[in-house]
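Standup, Tuesday
Yesterday: got the pipeline producing structure tokens again.
Today: sanity-check two examples.
Blockers: none.

Example 1:
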Amino acid sequence: MDTVAPPALAWSTANCQVARAMAVLGEKSTVVVLREVFNGVRRFDDVQRHSGVPRQVLSNRLALLVEHDVLRRVPYRPEHGRERHEYRLTQKGLDLYPVLAALADWGARYYADADGPPVEIAHRDCGAAVHATLTCEAGHRLDDPRAAAPRPGPGARPRDT
């Protein structure tokens, strides 16, 4: 039986945007930290207490997200306390919202308890549930992910053989 090699094998993955993004986001605790910040939990002690991420791991993840301009540190001073920082999303961080929405949708579909997911994302204006969708630049909604296909982009490089 002859098999045809997938076209992707002809292209290098040395400059893959997915691999580069996962170098920043690939740790479970990084996505958990982002979940907290998206949910409005911005202060270190609150994030640590609510997420259960160990303090040193949390410190490392926050530093990485600040270094990559996903979060920014904003100083605050509690009454009678020393200056501390909370973490706010940058535009680069806000651009991750559809990614977290897609993960939440997928988790709700396959891993929620029988009662349903503990958190839903809602449209602030009308209250309807929000879901991540695939839409092409021409505005077509793709209801089947098989309607999308990878192709070489402007940064594609042939694979070294």
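Example 2:
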Amino acid sequence: MPAAPPPRRAQAWTVYGLVAAAVIAIDVAVKQWTTANLAHNEPAEKILGGLIYVIYTRNSGAAFSMMRDQTWIFPIIALGVVGWLFYMIRGTASVAWAVALGFILGGAAGNLGDRLFRAPGPFRGHVVDMFSFLDDHGGHFPVFNIADSALTVGVALAILLEFAGRRRDGTRAQRG
């Protein structure tokens, strides 16, 4: 039987799993609500006085609908990212790093689920997006979803942790 991880590492792993699970659950719930309630060209739901609109759109490509005809590549990249994240968490004892990695895992897994299980079929599925800034048709900013937001937050947090000298093992880099 493998040895149990040290307490700090076990705590980080728990946080990582909980953050990823929460992101996936919220992402799936919002996508289901959007698909059920806005799928028939209904008007956009206005939030915060028009700062954000909730609309229904399907994206076969990446951000800005890039590479729409190469949909198959995105689930392969996402599977690689998920594998890399499981490798990264092995040496992580920092709760802050666990939060960052959990956000990234949840975001990657949320969009991977769409790529694998939504129409038109496995490895070709289109991602459900629903949030638009300042426009009810995504005219000012790409339409995005909870998974996209989690990826962005996770990557930004990881960059901040790197610049702050916080290591995944819970130590701080020496200033030199």
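Quick observation on example 2: The CA atoms of residues 88 and 101 lie 8 Å apart. The two ends are 42 Å apart (CA to CA).
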